[in-house]
Amino acid sequence: MPDPSPDTLIAVAMSGGVDSSTVAALLQREGHRLVGMTMQLWNQRRLPELQVEGATGRCCSLDDVYDARAVANILGIPYYVVNFEDDFERTVVKPFIDEYLSGRTPIPCTLCNNHVKFDKFLEMAEGVGASHVATGHYARVSFNPDSGRYELRKGVDESKDQTYFLFGLTQPQLARTLFPLGGMTKPEVRALAASLKVPTAAKHDSQEICFVPNGDYAAFIDAWFKDQGIPRQSIQGEIVDTSGKVLAGHHGVHHYTVGQRKGLNVAVGEPLYVIATNPMTQQVIVGRNEDLLRRTLTAKDVNWVSVAPITEPRSAQVKIRNKHLAAQAMLIPTSDPKRVEVRFDTPQRAVTPGQAAVFYDGDLVLAGGWIE
Q1: Which residues are catalytic?
Q2: pLDDT score, position 358
Q3: What CATH number does domain 293-371 carry, 2.130.10.10, 3.40.50.300, 3.40.50.970, 2.40.30.10?
Q4: Does the pTM of the predicted model rise above 0.85?
């Protein structure tokens, strides 16, 4: 897509990490007018019982805000912290909890991109006069004059590509979004950051979900209910095999996810994995590794990112997890354009309800939806 003119004001989403800091420094070097904005999404002092002393790797921490402000000061650009905590809790945290309690495994980072980073942030940017936003995501946007659509493509660095989390972007959002790092590898970004004297050039990447500091989703859910003053009844259920035989008890299906092996506390002489959970009966069904294989799935709420909804079967590569190697499949349209059946050429392991299925044609993101 054409670069904005130099007199266009661009709002840079500054997370305090090396990527967004480098975006700001790079755009400034190119002569663009900038404003830096950091999104305050989650109060890190909440749920203190979950804090892990000395833990690192969380995004959106107070240290990150400090680093983002420092970079903005060095660049001499206006800088604001915008509070989206209420929106974040309503559109990301609460749906995350509801999904988990319903036996599905949600992706909060995708929810955040859909409802906060590329929705509310664009509104806030427009409020300060910025026509475009720029982020440090490893992805690319281009305009196809033949189709008249903006296209989302994988970042050049496959190991850092983030398009799996960006499938919810709309055409109006893509038209106003810049991904300056999409054509670079991570080592190249760090080298550029060092050459631009970005103080976060050697900073470690964030890994954990910002509101789950210890990576224990079930503990977070319990702590959140306590924080809200909502009493939770003691939940008990059964772990059963595929024939229905009871193997053990448990304290809530939200402690388990499809494909899980550890923490089952079941000894039968061979490895067992979670095949499915049933919140209605509080049953956790376990089985062998081969029981995890699935040849088909149905995706709902499909967003056709780069192409129009299909009306006939189309071949694609489909990712069912961020680190999943995209598998060849056939996309089968239904009477609802937001609902697609996926038929894999070879069975895939641990197709998990609540996760995303993202459809690719090479590096082009066709669409994505939520696995039922």
Answers
A1: 112, 210
A2: 98
A3: 2.40.30.10
A4: yes
CATH of 9-195, one of 3.40.50.620, 1.25.40.340, 3.40.50.1860, 3.40.50.150: 3.40.50.620
pLDDT at 104: 86
d(CA 194, CA 340): 45
Q: What's residue 8's pLDDT?
A: 86
The first and second tokens of residue 106, run together, are 């949600």
Domain locations along the chain: 9-195, 234-287, 293-371
In Å, the largest CA–CA distance within the chain is: 69
Give exposure, 320-336, as e/b (b: 16+ Cβ within 10 Å).
bbbebebbebebebeee
Same CATH fold, 293-371 and 9-195? no
Single-letter residue type at 150 = Y
Q: Which fold does the domain 234-287 belong to in CATH? A: SH3 type barrels. (2.30.30)
Tell me what the pLDDT averaged over the chain comes to.
91
Asked if the model's pLDDT at residue 232 lies above 90, the reply is no
* Confidence at residue 230, expressed as pLDDT on a 0 to 100 scale: 81
The rounded percent of the chain whose pLDDT value lies above 90 is 70
Q: Is the pLDDT of residue 83 over 60?
A: yes
Residue 144's closest CA among 177, 106, 171?
A: 171
Phi-psi sector, 29: left (phi>0), alpha (psi -120 to 50), beta: alpha
Backbone φ and ψ for 106, nearest 5 degrees, come out as -75, 170
pLDDT at 100: 84
List residues bridging with 33 in a β-sheet: 9
